[in-house]
Amino acid sequence: MNFHVSDVGAVRELTVKEKGVVLDISGGTSMQVTAFRPDGTSFTRTPTFVGTGSDGKVQWITESGDLTLEGVYHDQLKLTLGSWTGSADRGSFTVYAIT
Asked: Using one digit for the tens of pLDDT, what is the confidence trace for 20-73?
């Protein structure tokens, strides 16, 4: 899926991996995704599991005011999994100008 400036309702899917292997995050709680715009500003969304979470997949949905600039955005999931709380590796996606 391509993302464009001002898109609302666009779905961004993330897959959590550890050392290249998909991580079962079905027991994950307190999940938050922080997305960083090309200018360094950020916003936070609450993701949902795509399925059960055993496949390591979550998704978040853009809202009004999220995709304000064209360029490369980075996003990062933070969650609690058992006694561990931390962040997954950052992902990236490109937001294109409206044509």
From this structure: 999 999 999 999 999 999 999 999 999 999 999 999 999 999 999 999 999 999
Print burial letters for 24-52: b (CB count within 10 Å at least 16), e (below 16). Answer: ebeebeebebebbbeeeeebebebebeee
pTM (2 decimals)? 0.93
Strands 3-4 and 91-96, by their bridges, are parallel
Task: Return the CATH number of the domain spanning residue range 3-96.
Answer: 2.60.40.10
Question: Domains of the chain: which residue ranges?
Answer: 3-96
Identity at 98, one-letter amino acid code: I
